[in-house]
């Protein structure tokens, strides 16, 4: 379909607010063609019915939709009636069967959330299922998949209802009483910082309290809490002074990462000494308690020096160590460098819990909720009717 006449900026993503056809979307695509969409409203439904829309009808109504601009067609390649169905399955898991993506939730393409939402489903399920099937975690961890993802999907569908209603030229209940045209409100919606973050996937959150997310009231140790995505920031490698993204140091390979925001060592020395005693205890150190690679430790020191041992006042370092002398990471997570904090990152980069630097026992209690110690021999398992069944070998 090639535009001819007075349609402005024909090779630019555009829209027209029509009194009769809702918000008309104008999307230039390859080979000089344009993909165009308008609302098949109640009046058009009554006029043509679902089976009475032909190519000629689609083109004729398209011309009316862009009024007062003119539009002519050289060729029509394709047309369809696209129905918006917003629904969600009652549960995303039943026994050994898991649903993800369009199998458990459908909505319009209004804000391009289909792939985003399905990807979040897959990532959330994959690492939980992998830990469980390897005998490293309890079935309750896997079962948190459905309850966690339902929250985000409900938000996607609620957002989609608002977008679809505005595109149709109507006002959703949220905006009743407004006198602005729906297009103005739609622009306002898409420019809202919270909606932008959610649409990009950066503002998706999980419940702050469940088996894998533990928040502690009254402990303002970090501005990023349980169930929230860890923001990106940079730290510095010892020796080379190379600035590296923190998230790159914690790839999603099914491992939890305990990050010690050690603060300024001269201020947190007593907490670090207590932490060192905890690490030296075979039963306390979480890296030794669980199978290799399930839990890993990173240390961020708000200082610099020839070695981590020098900076730590002679103490042995904790896991892989990086400098944060400019407090870039501490500030990104809102951690006081005079007190420090322990932040546990789930394999998907979300925060599992935050604890005081001097209380590593709280981290051990957190992992005990769903991880299985290597000292406890667990045969391979499978999910059947929501329960774990042992398989003999």
Describe the structure.
There is one protein chain. This protein is an alpha+beta fold and 393 residues long. Strands 9-8-12-11-10-13-14 form a seven-stranded mixed beta sheet. The protein starts with 13 loop residues before the first strand and ends with a strand. The chain folds into three domains: 1-82, 2-Layer Sandwich (D-Amino Acid Oxidase, Chain A, domain 2), CATH 3.30.9; 90-200, FAD/NAD(P)-binding domain (3-Layer(bba) Sandwich), CATH 3.50.50.60; 234-368, 3-Layer(aba) Sandwich (Glutaredoxin). Helix 3 packs antiparallel against helix 4. It is built from eleven helices and 16 strands. Mean pLDDT is 89; it is low at 385-393.
Compile the SSE list and pairings.
Layout: E1 14-18, E2 22-28, E3 34-37, H1 42-48, H2 55-65, E4 87-88, E5 93-94, E6 97-98, E7 105-106, H3 114-133, H4 139-167, H5 182-191, H6 193-200, E8 234-237, E9 243-245, E10 256-263, H7 265-280, H8 286-289, E11 295-301, H9 308-311, E12 320-323, H10 328-332, E13 341-345, E14 351-355, H11 361-368, E15 381-384, E16 387-390
Parallel strand pairs: 10-11, 11-12
Antiparallel strand pairs: 1-2, 2-3, 4-7, 5-6, 8-9, 8-12, 10-13, 13-14, 15-16
Helix pairs in contact: 3-4
């Amino acid at each position: 379909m090639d535009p001819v006449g007075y349609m402005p900026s024909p090779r630019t993503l555009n829209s027209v607010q029509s009194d009769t056809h809702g918000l008309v979307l104008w999307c230039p695509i390859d080979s000089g063609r344009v993909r165009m969409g308008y609302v098949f409203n109640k009046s058009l439904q009554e006029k043509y019915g679902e089976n009475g829309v032909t190519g000629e009808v689609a083109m004729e109504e398209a011309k009316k939709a862009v009024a007062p601009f003119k539009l002519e067609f050289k060729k029509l390649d394709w047309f369809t009636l696209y129905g918006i169905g917003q629904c969600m399955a009652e549960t995303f898991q039943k026994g050994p069967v898991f649903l993800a993506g369009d199998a458990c939730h459908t909505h319009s393409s209004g804000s391009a959330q289909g792939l985003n939402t399905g990807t979040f489903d897959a990532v959330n399920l994959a690492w939980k299922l992998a830990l469980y099937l390897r005998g490293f975690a309890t079935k309750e961890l896997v079962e948190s998949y459905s309850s966690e993802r339902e929250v985000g999907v409900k938000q996607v569908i609620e957002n989609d209802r608002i977008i679809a209603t505005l595109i149709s030229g109507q006002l959703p209940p949220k905006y009743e009483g407004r006198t602005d045209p729906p297009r103005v409100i739609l622009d306002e919606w898409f420019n809202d910082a919270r909606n932008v973050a959610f649409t990009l996937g950066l503002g998706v959150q999980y419940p702050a309290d469940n088996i894998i997310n533990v928040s502690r009231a009254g402990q303002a140790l970090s501005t990023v809490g349980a169930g929230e995505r860890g923001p990106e920031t940079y730290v510095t490698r010892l020796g080379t002074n190379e600035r590296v993204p923190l998230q790159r140091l914690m790839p999603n390979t099914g491992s939890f990462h305990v990050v010690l925001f050690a603060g300024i060592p001269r201020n947190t020395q007593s907490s670090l000494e207590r932490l060192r005693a905890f690490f030296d205890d075979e039963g306390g150190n979480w890296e030794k308690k669980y199978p290799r690679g399930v839990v890993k430790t990173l240390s961020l020191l708000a200082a610099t020096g020839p070695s981590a041992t020098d900076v730590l006042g002679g103490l042995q370092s904790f896991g892989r160590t990086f400098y944060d002398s400019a407090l870039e990471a501490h500030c990104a997570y809102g951690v006081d460098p005079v007190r420090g904090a322990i932040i546990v990152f789930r394999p998907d980069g979300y925060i599992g819990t935050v604890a005081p630097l001097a209380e590593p026992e709280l981290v051990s209690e957190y992992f005990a909720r769903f991880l299985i110690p290597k000292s406890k021999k667990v045969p391979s398992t499978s999910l059947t009717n929501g329960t774990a069944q042992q398989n003999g070998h």
